[in-house]
Amino acid sequence: MGDEKEVKNDEKTEKGLKSKKKKKGILGRIWSSLFRLGSGDDFEKRLQYITKEEGSIVMRMKRRAMRWRRTARNLIIFSVLIELVAIGYAIMTTRTVDMEWRMRSLRVLPMFLLPALSFALYYGLQSFTKFCDRRDQKTLEKLRAERQTKIDELKERTNYYITQQLIQWKSLFLLVLMPFYTGGVDFIVTGSWHKFI
Fold first, then answer.
1. What is the distance between the alpha carbons of residues 146 and 46, in angstroms, rounded to a whole number?
2. Distance between alpha carbon 81 and the CA centroid of its chain, in Å?
């Protein structure tokens, strides 16, 4: 009994889904193909994807810059502290007068080696960060160029430039007609020029 009710409910939901999904008729398909209404969604989706990707790249660059500043500060502080420890170690271990010069140089070596290692680590991290920033900047420029080409292509498809020229010509035509309008100054003050548009 319970299984029959579940089957009936499943059939009802399938019928409900089929009835909700409206198919296009012949005239709708012709209209869409003539005016390419379906391709506008592709432009919109692509532009949304480009905008989303651009935002994520910009945020990634900001996070990387903040992380680099924090890492550089911590690296410098850590290097100074370790250098102070190395100097203290060199002073404490080389106090004896009867120490051989090779042993003395080995105990003093960390005092000179640690700054070089710190500099190499700092320089390597800085180079890697700049490399990642350059790569993201190139990707960002590509996305912006692609977005601009998509916008230009959309403007061409929707006759944006022609419409803009018609509006400019119409406004120029109205400016030429304005002196001959019987309202005179009333034409400018009351804004009755909208009758011509």
1. 10
2. 39
pLDDT score, position 98: 83
User: What's the gap between Cα 24 and its chain centre?
Assistant: 37
Cα–Cα distance measured from residue 44 to residue 60, given in angstroms and rounded to the nearest whole number = 24
Mean pLDDT taken over the chain: 78
Cα–Cα distance, 79 to 119 (Å, whole number): 9
Structure tokens at 180: 């001959």
Measured between alpha carbons, how far is residue 131 from residues 59, 125, 145, 194 in Å? 17, 10, 21, 57
The residue type found at 120 is: A
Q: Can you tell me the distance from the alpha carbon of 66 to that of 57, in angstroms, rounded to the nearest whole number?
A: 14
- pTM greater than 0.85 (yes/no): no
Confirm if 61 and 136 have CB atoms less than 8 A apart.
Answer: yes
Structure tokens at 48: 């949304």
